[in-house]
Amino acid sequence: MTSNKNQHYVPRCYLRAFTEHGDGVRINLFNTDRERVIPLVSARHQCSRAYFYGSDAELEAAIQLLERSYAEVLRHITQDSYVLTDEDSDLLRRFWLFQYLRTEAASQRSVEVLNAATDAMGISGAEYRAEMKRAVLHAMRTFAEHMDIMDDMSTCLVRNDSTTPFITSDDPAILSNRLYLECLPRLGKSFGMRQSGNIMVLPLTPSILFLGFDRNVYTVREKKGWYSLKAADDARAYNQHQMLNCRANLFFRENHYGSEVGIEFAKIADRRPPARHRIHTMIFDRSEGDHNFYRVVEPEEAREQGEMMVHMEAVYPAPPRWPMHLGVRPKVIVFTNGTGVGYLRRPETRIGKERAFQRVTLSLFGSPRSGFSLA
Question: Ramachandran region of residue 170, left (φ > 0), alpha (ψ -120 to 50) or beta?
């Protein structure tokens, strides 16, 4: 039985860097529902719930071990002349993935998408409906089974030398994808953690950000694991990811920055998707040779057929701009087997076994300011 009742889904060791004086005591927040700044609230009670992970003492110990390792790496990173090591990159990837899966917002999205799927199929009853606790535990299992899923991503640290500090949120680990959101929108495909063009974002302090990126798609001119960001607009572009992705609260260190947070949020609030998923119901249409074809119909029609397929698609917000230093290559390398799996960063042996994956080069045209698309 765990002895810690108040369990944080965004750990205190992470939020500490964004608190007033960096001492972990008080923090400024902007609430997106009320669109107002709430200054200097207690940091101790932010992003926490009673027994959020349950009462498993071993699970709690494993989480605390990862958090202590992160805190130690952050201590090294904030020292002068630090050079990003492979070992620290691995830890930051793991911490990013754990944080991406663990928050209340992430668990709530899982609950919402599963409940929407059961509604589409006409299934009712509490035994079929996802609950937050089960969603949290499922996220922990997913992390344990797939903690290496982002290991092929390149990484660097972004040093913020601009006048605009990085902010964070109650759902700070961002997964985005400029290739899918900007270059390939007409394909109508979403992306997951295996896709080409993925971008990992996690602010570590108001002046340091962890960035993971697919080097076959993007270029970053880092030196010794660092990129020095000079433009305030680029810092705002990273902050927009927090504004678009957060569930309810944005966090920042300096009280006087609150008015700018409110102004910047108002500019992009309409880009926050009303739902983070789409449900498609399909019924059998026809067969051609060895292939079956399905057509999308309304859930009511699908239920009348008695047999259906349900496809769940994640919805990701698209920011109005991207940091200029994250360049898109004119020719990008992806892997595909021509199915709905889409473009992957590397050949996948566990899916699509009936069709081999091929390496493909996609030619893009455009510019960082005007956007990219397939040539």
Answer: alpha
The 8-class DSSP code of residue 281 comes to E
Q: Tell me the helix, strand and coil percentages in the chain, rounded to 5.
A: 35, 30, 35
Q: What is the pLDDT along the chain (375 residues), one digit of tens a residue?
A: 444 555 567 889 999 999 999 999 999 999 999 999 999 999 988 887 654 555 556 667 777 888 999 999 999 999 999 999 999 999 999 999 988 987 655 555 554 445 544 554 555 555 444 465 666 666 667 777 888 999 999 999 999 999 999 999 999 999 999 998 987 765 556 788 899 999 999 999 999 999 999 999 999 999 999 999 999 999 999 999 999 999 899 999 998 999 999 999 999 999 998 876 666 666 677 887 776 777 766 666 666 676 666 656 778 899 999 999 999 999 999 998 887 788 999 887 565 555 688 999 998 866 666 666 665
DSSP H or E stretch at residue 284: strand 277-288
Residue of 212, 213, 273, 262 lying closest to 239 (CA atoms):
262
- Tokens at 316, concatenated: 């990701």
75 within 8 A of 146, measured Cβ to Cβ: no
Q: Which residues contact 325 (CB under 8 A, 6 or more apart)?
A: 220, 221, 227, 229, 234
Q: If you count them, how many residues does the chain have? A: 375
pTM, rounded to two decimals: 0.83
Instruction: Name residue 56's amino acid.
Output: D
Dist. CA 345–CA 145, nearest whole Å:
19
The candidate with the shortest Cα–Cα distance to 193, out of 209, 210, 212, 208, is 212
Residue 151 CB partners (closer than 8 Å, separation 6+):
90, 93
Q: Residue 306, exposed/middle/buried by CB under 10 A (0-12, 13-18, 19+)?
A: exposed
Angle at CA of residue 214, ends 212 and 218, nearest 5°: 100
Please say whether the beta carbons of 129 and 116 come within 8 A. Answer: no
- Say whether 106 sits in a helix, a strand or coil: helix
Nearest residue to 152 via CA among 365, 335, 338: 335
Greatest pairwise CA separation for the chain in angstroms? 68
Closest to 218 measured CA to CA, from 316, 331, 321, 320: 331
